[in-house]
Design goal:
Blueprint: E1 22-28, E2 34-35, E3 41-49, E4 52-53, E5 58-65, E6 68-77, E7 82-87, E8 93-101, E9 109-117, H1 132-144, E10 151-155, E11 162-169, E12 176-183, E13 191-197, H2 208-215, E14 219-223, H3 234-242, H4 261-275, E15 281-291, H5 293-304, E16 310-314, E17 338-339, E18 342-343, H6 345-351, H7 356-362, E19 367-372, H8 380-388, E20 394-399, H9 408-427
Helix pairs in contact: 4-5, 5-7
Length: 429
C-alpha cells in the first residue's frame, strides 16, 4: 500500500535439535544365524550414540535357551563401542542373547538376538495323545449334527468388480461370523477358496483381505475368532474384550472339553463347509492362512479337515504348549501354568488336545511357516517343534531379525506361497 511502513518479518525460533539417540544392537558371527550343537556362538554387542561408538560404559547381557534357563549372565565394558559374548548350546534349540543399557537419566534400552542350533532336530516335548483323533472326531460329529444355515447379507464393496457379504453360519456354540468376497460374474466351479483367520484379540472380521484375494481370482472368507457380529463399534469389541472374553485364552483350561479354543477350531471346519458349497468353488482348492493365533488356527484346520489343500502359518501360536516338560519354552498363550519348574498336570493333560504340534502331525496338506528368531510370544523353538512334526511337503521362512510379527519380506513370501499353490492346482486340471 502507498505510504505503508515495511514490517520486519517475525523471527521464527530455531527448533531445538533432538537429542542424539542411543542404539544397541547384537549380531552373531554366522550371518545366517544357524549353528551346530556345541558350536561356539560369538555375539557382538554394539552401542552407539548419535551414530558414534560409545566407550567406557557397561552393558548387561544374558544368554538363555530361548528365554528359559540355565542362564548365562554378565556385564561387558565397551571398547570402540563393542564387546563380545560367547555361548553355546549342546542340544537342538535356540540361543537368545539379550543386552540392556541404562543411559544416565534415560530409559533402559534392550536388544535381542536369536540363533538356531540344529533346529531341524527340535521335536515336540510330548507325543500326541493316543485318543487325540477319537476326541476330535467326536467333536466334528457334534458339529456335523448342526445344520450350516448360512446367511449372507450383502455389504457395500470397496471394489467395483467384487461382491461382498456378511456371513453368519451356525456352529457348535458361537456362529461362524465373517466377511465373504467373490469376483463378480464368476463362473461355477472355477475358483479356489481361501479362509483367513485372526490373531489374538477381539475384533470384527475384515473386509480388505477377502476383497484383495477376490481381485486375484479366489473366493475368500475372513472370520473373526469369536463368532461376534461384524462391523460394530470399537467400543463394542472393547467391552467384550474387557468383559466376557477377558483372558479367553486361558478359559476352561482345566478340561479338554471346556478349553475355549474348541469352539474356535470347530468354526474352522464349519467355515470350510460354507466355502466348499459355494457354486463358484473349483471343487478342489481350500487354503487356510493366518498369523499368531491365526497361524495356530491354520495348522488346526489342516489337521482337522482333509479338504484343506494348503495352509500358511505365520509365527504360529499354541505350539508345544507342554514345553516345560522338556525344560523348554512354551508357545502363546502359555496355557499350562508352571510352578517350581513343574507344569500343572491336569491342565497339561487337557491342553495337549489343542497343541498345534499335534494338529501338524495329522495334516496331509503342504504348509508354509514363518518364524521370528527373536519372537518372545511364539518363540522359535516352539514353531520349529510344530514345523518338524509336519510330515507333508513344507517350507519355512526364517525371519532372523523379527520378533512377534511378519516382516515385509515374510508377508510377501506368504502371499507368494498361496499364489504358487493356486497355480499348481490349476496346472493339475
Amino acid at each position: 500500500m502507498p505510504g505503508a511502513v515495511a514490517q520486519e518479518p517475525t523471527a521464527t525460533p530455531e527448533a531445538t535439535p533432538a537429542a542424539p539417540e542411543y542404539a544397541l544392537v547384537i549380531s552373531a558371527d554366522h550371518a545366517d544365524a544357524f549353528y551346530k550343537k556345541g558350536e561356539e556362538v560369538t555375539y557382538t554387542l554394539r552401542l552407539t550414540h548419535g551414530g558414534e561408538p560409545v566407550n567406557g560404559v557397561t552393558v548387561e547381557w544374558r544368554v538363555s535357551k530361548d528365554g528359559v534357563g540355565p542362564f548365562q549372565k554378565g556385564s561387558a565394558e565397551l571398547a570402540n563401542g563393542e564387546a563380545a559374548v560367547k555361548a553355546h548350546l549342546n542340544e537342538a534349540g535356540f540361543l537368545q542373547c539379550m543386552a540392556t543399557f541404562q543411559p544416565e537419566g534415560g530409559k533402559k534400552i534392550t536388544a535381542l538376538s536369536g540363533v538356531a542350533v540344529d533346529p531341524s532336530e527340535i521335536y515336540p516335548s510330548l507325543p500326541t495323545p493316543e485318543d487325540f483323533d477319537a476326541f476330535w472326531n467326536a467333536k466334528k460329529e457334534e458339529l456335523a449334527a448342526v445344520p450350516v444355515n448360512a446367511r449372507l447379507t450383502e455389504v457395500k464393496s470397496p471394489e467395483a468388480g467384487v461382491e461382498t457379504f456378511d456371513l453368519q453360519a451356525d456352529s457348535v456354540g458361537a456362529p461362524v461370523s465373517g466377511y465373504y468376497a467373490r469376483p463378480k460374474g464368476a463362473q461355477p466351479g472355477t475358483l479356489p477358496a481361501i479362509l483367513t483367520t485372526h490373531g489374538a484379540g477381539v475384533r470384527s472380521a475384515g473386509l480388505g483381505g477377502p476383497v484383495a484375494w477376490a481381485k486375484q481370482g479366489l473366493i475368500a472368507l475372513d472370520i473373526n475368532a469369536h463368532g461376534l457380529p461384524n462391523g460394530e463399534s470399537k467400543a463394542f469389541y472393547r467391552e467384550k474384550e474387557k468383559g466376557e472374553l477377558k483372558d479367553y485364552r486361558l478359559s476352561g483350561r482345566e478340561s479338554r472339553d471346556t478349553i475355549y479354543f474348541q469352539g474356535m477350531f470347530l468354526r474352522l471346519v464349519r467355515a470350510i463347509d460354507f466355502l466348499t458349497t459355494q457354486p463358484e468353488w473349483d471343487g478342489k482348492t481350500v487354503i487356510v492362512s493366518g498369523t499368531s493365533q491365526g497361524g495356530a488356527q491354520a495348522i488346526a484346520a489342516a489337521g482337522l479337515d482333509p479338504r484343506v489343500t494348503f495352509f500358511v502359518a505365520g509365527v504360529p501360536a499354541l505350539c508345544d504348549v507342554s514345553g516345560a516338560v522338556a525344560e523348554r519354552i512354551a508357545g502363546w498363550p502359555k496355557i499350562v501354568p508352571v510352578v517350581k519348574g513343574k507344569p500343572d498336570p491336569t491342565i497339561l493333560e487337557a491342553a495337549r488336545y489343542y497343541d498345534a504340534v499335534n494338529f501338524a502331525s495329522r495334516a496331509k496338506a503342504p504348509g508354509f511357516f514363518t518364524v521370528g528368531f527373536i519372537d518372545t510370544t511364539c518363540p522359535p523353538t516352539t514353531v520349529y517343534a510344530a514345523y518338524n512334526h509336519l510330515a507333508s511337503e513344507k517350507e519355512i521362512f526364517n525371519d532372523i531379525t523379527s520378533g512377534h510379527h511378519n516382516s515385509k519380506e515374510a508377508i510377501q513370501k506368504m502371499h507368494e506361497a498361496v499364489l504358487k499353490h493356486v497355480a499348481a492346482q490349476k496346472g493339475g486340471n
